[in-house]
Amino acid sequence: MLSIIYYILALILVVTIHEFSHAWVANKLGDPTAKIAGRLTLNPAAHLDLMGTIMLFLIHIGWGKPVPVNSHYFKHPKRDEAITALAGPVSSLILALFLTIPVKYLALVMPQPIFDFLSTTLDVALLLFIFNMLPFPPLDGSKIIGIFVPERFQRIYKNYLANGMIYFMIFLLFDQFVLVRIFDFSILQFVIGNVFTFIKTLLFLGT
Description:
The protein has helices at 2-28, 33-36, 50-59, 77-105, 112-132, 140-144, 154-183, 187-205. By secondary structure, the protein is mostly helical. The chain has one domain (2-205). α5 packs across α8. The longest helix has 30 residues, at 154-183. The protein is globular and about 55 Å long.
């Protein structure tokens, strides 16, 4: 029971920092849209997304409400939109890096509940970093790759951003409720799990 509570609290914390980072960077780059919409805040209520919360209970990974961005405010729309998208995953990675120190070096002197929460938050931060870097809408990776899409393919890319989410949702449900239940194998878990293990090993070897 406690592990579930730690997981939910960790997810709320990581998602809040993630979405706030999008809003903060966008505002710094000249786009006040998120600030006007009340998203430049660390209040979790402003960042929770209905579908992302539902997916949390279905596949144990969710996402926050997308931060509104108007690229017309940016001096360099393509670049700045990609930087804004990257800000969220990077904030999760930085949080994981920060938490690695107490989890590794202070485990013996910390009260067990605090250690469990920090350790869970570290894992959630890494998982959401990896998950959000996947190049599928509505995840940040789909916007980050926009900087590499040639101008002649921009219309196709924009259509992909607008309509790709439904296909990604179908894939997630197929992965979890068909592949897992019939073949006991998940493409998503295989990819994320291996990358997670690799990064976490690097973090603890390098500190």
